[in-house]
Design a protein that fits this description.
two-stranded parallel ribbon; three-stranded antiparallel sheet; alpha+beta
């Protein structure tokens, strides 16, 4: 619902698709990087946090359907650097971007 509301309120530009956003639990078909339980995504991707990295909480291979990932262990929508780093690594926007402002 937050995604649809962002489009209606003009906080998400019409050129984006709802599939351009990364959610806390997300099934990715053909991700641009290899995603395994060992994958680490550096915090430097978001221009900060040298020495920090994201270890995905869950990575499950669903064969032809894609790879299911869970960013953090919980399902809250807190704004955290991990979401931004993973979204950047995957060429997406994290859904949390719509909480604080606009994606244009």
């Amino acid at each position: 619902m937050s995604t649809l509301t962002a489009f209606i309120e003009g906080r998400a530009a019409a050129r984006y698709s709802p599939w351009d956003f990364l959610f806390q639990l997300h099934l990715l078909k053909n991700p641009p990087i290899s995603l395994t339980p060992e994958t680490r995504i550096p915090g430097t991707l978001v221009g900060m946090l040298p020495g920090k990295e994201v270890r995905l909480h869950l990575v499950e291979d669903y064969g032809d359907l894609g790879v299911l990932i869970q960013i953090k262990a919980d399902f809250n929508s807190d704004i955290a650097w991990e979401y931004f780093a993973v979204a950047k690594a995957l060429g997406l926007h994290c859904i949390q971007e719509l909480c604080e402002g606009s994606v244009f």
